[in-house]
Amino acid sequence: MTDEHAVWQEQRGRAVAGRAAALEADRAAEAAQASALLTDFVQRAAERGLTPSPLAAHAFDGRATYRTRLRGWYLKANRSVAVGEDGRYYVLSVPASVRARFRGAQLAPSRPRLVVGAGGGDGETMPLAQLLERRLDAEVTWP
After folding, report:
1. Confidence band (pLDDT; 50, 70, 90) for 123?
2. C-beta neighbour count of 64 within 10 angstroms
3. Extended strands (E) in the chain
């Protein structure tokens, strides 16, 4: 390998690492903004008397529904995403599992985004703030 080629590879590696770091910083800033929206939602829901309900998860194939230990508020009518009473964002899709059928599904919070569904490819995107407002406006009549 020539010296020029080695220098080029090193520069390219630094550029890629710099771009990755910038992208991660952008995602972290977005998650912080979205988390603030979620925290505000939980507070406003409590002020309006909207009690959290048990959250269920759905298998990726859509054939099974599993209970979880979480309580919160569904944000979409299809019950695919929710805000937990802890103010964290949950995607309610899990792999199909016999164990989850009996013990319930274990869900970890997801990194929230300001646009729900962004990058999902199904074309169903909506700003998080709009989903939260819709949920608050629906009050107890949520589907």
Report:
1. low
2. 16
3. 53-59, 65-74, 81-84, 89-91, 93-94, 115-116, 126-127
